UniProtKB/TrEMBL annotation:
Keywords per UniProt: Repeat, Riboflavin biosynthesis, Transferase
Pathway noted in the entry: Cofactor biosynthesis; riboflavin biosynthesis; riboflavin from 2-hydroxy-3-oxobutyl phosphate and 5-amino-6-(D-ribitylamino)uracil: step 2/2
Function text: Catalyzes the dismutation of two molecules of 6,7-dimethyl-8-ribityllumazine, resulting in the formation of riboflavin and 5-amino-6-(D-ribitylamino)uracil.
Gene name for this UniProt entry: ribE
Any one GO MF annotation of this record: riboflavin synthase activity
Entry protein name: Riboflavin synthase
Length: 211
């Protein structure tokens, strides 16, 4: 479990690519202070498991499904990435509930600076837009953000200077792809309202003595 509050921007040190998989090595400066093999670290919002580490580097395995459904396959040596360790049980909880399980990728449509804010519209697949609402939450490349507008197949976020400085989002441009994780609570509510139960509903449970 993550919060969407990015702790550090790291740099891709090396990529060992297979046909549909990858070993990714990241250089960073601070988040490995208490890390160990087996820990979870989110890279651009994707929860991955540390397989090896040193004082300033760690490696993760990226499996075919993750390569296919996220933007990690677009990374190159030298790419900057958002990093967040899994939330500590005794830590202060900011941001929102982020699982690190990306729902899909979006494409930045436009970026506009207005006073101290950067307004960004992001197009998402049609099947994801139902999870967005005004003042709801979304994780973009792992960064917890508030939704300020929703259109037919896109939504808008606004970056404050702190977020622009501490994450990679402001360095992107229209046409760039980003990882999208929709609000976990919205997904649960949507599933409860429209369950994929293969005919198992409240009437079925009552008729068969489960309620």
């Amino acid at each position: 479990m993550f919060t969407g509050l990015i702790e550090e921007v790291g740099t891709v040190h090396n990529l060992q690519k297979g046909k549909n998989s990858m070993i990714l090595t990241i250089t960073c400066s601070s988040i490995l202070n208490d890390a160990k093999i087996g820990d979870s670290i989110a890279i651009n919002g994707v929860c991955l498991t540390v397989t090896s580490l040193s004082d300033h580097q760690f490696s993760v395995d990226v499996m075919p499904e993750t390569m296919k459904s996220t933007t990690l396959h677009e990374l190159k040596k030298g790419s900057k990435v958002n990093l967040e360790r899994a939330m500590a049980a005794g830590g202060r909880f900011g941001g929102h509930f982020v699982s690190g399980h990306v729902d899909g990728t979006g494409v930045i449509q436009s970026m506009k600076k207005e006073e101290n804010a950067i307004y960004i519209y992001i197009q998402v697949p049609d099947e994801l837009i139902k999870y967005f609402m005004m003042k709801g939450s979304v994780a973009v490349d792992g960064t917890s953000l508030t939704v300020f507008d929703v259109k037919k197949n896109s939504f808008m976020i606004s970056l404050i200077p702190q977020t622009a400085d501490d994450t990679i989002i402001a360095s992107k441009s229209p046409g760039s792809k980003v990882n999208i994780e929709c609000d976990m609570i919205a997904k649960y509510v949507q599933n409860l309202m429209h369950p994929q139960t293969n005919g198992i509903d409240e009437s079925y449970l009552k008729e068969n003595g489960f309620m």
